[in-house]
UniProtKB/TrEMBL annotation:
Phylogenetic classification of the source organism: Bacteria, Bacillati, Bacillota, Clostridia, Lachnospirales
Species of the source: Eisenbergiella massiliensis
Classification via PANTHER family: FUCOSE MUTAROTASE
Record key words, sorted: Isomerase
Catalytic activity: alpha-L-fucose = beta-L-fucose; beta-D-ribopyranose = beta-D-ribofuranose
Protein name: Fucose isomerase
GO MF: D-ribose pyranase activity; fucose binding; L-fucose mutarotase activity
InterPro entries referenced in this protein's UniProt entry, alphabetically: RbsD-like_sf, RbsD/FucU_mutarotase, RbsD_FucU
GO terms classed as biological process: fucose metabolic process
Pfam families for the chain: RbsD_FucU (PF05025)
């Protein structure tokens, strides 16, 4: 155990976060996301017993968001005609606002199949037990500054 590090950040996930460089992306995937098939070229980290908000908050305590792009955080858009509500997105925006001065302006949306394509090129994908639908979030790493 370490002081000041959220306990949900496993040694494996901490290692992955440390390995990532500027502009590398990590996906925090909901329980329905095809993690293993999307992550064939990525490092897959399993945190099945946790939800996305808890993991997002923990990661953002140690992970800077990219300041050189408009949307370093991207959500998977709801498919047109899919009668789904996404209240979890408001929770994400609140978490992001606590860790990045841009707040919800740092958050963009990517069409579902384009999100899958982007996820296939991510450095890592975190599998969670999140039950909310369309709860996937992609983060782009920035530069660590003093």
């Amino acid at each position: 155990m370490l002081k000041g590090i959220p306990s949900v950040l496993s040694p494996e996930l901490l290692k992955v976060l440390c390995e990532m460089g500027h502009s590398d992306r990590i996906v925090i995937a909901d329980g329905n996301f095809p993690v293993e098939s999307m992550g064939k070229n990525a490092k897959v980290v399993r945190l099945d017993g946790h939800g996305v908000p808890e993991i997002l908050d923990a990661i953002l305590q140690v992970f800077p968001l990219d300041t050189y792009v408009e949307h370093p955080v991207n959500l998977m858009e709801v498919m047109p005609g899919d009668p789904v509500e996404t209240p979890i997105w408001d929770e994400y925006k609140e978490i992001i606002s606590r860790h990045d001065d841009r707040g919800s302006a740092a958050v963009g949306n990517i069409e579902r199949f384009a999100f899958y394509d982007e996820a296939k090129t991510a450095y890592a994908i975190v599998a969670t037990g999140e039950m909310a639908v369309y709860a996937n979030v992609m983060l782009q790493k920035g530069v660590v500054k003093d």
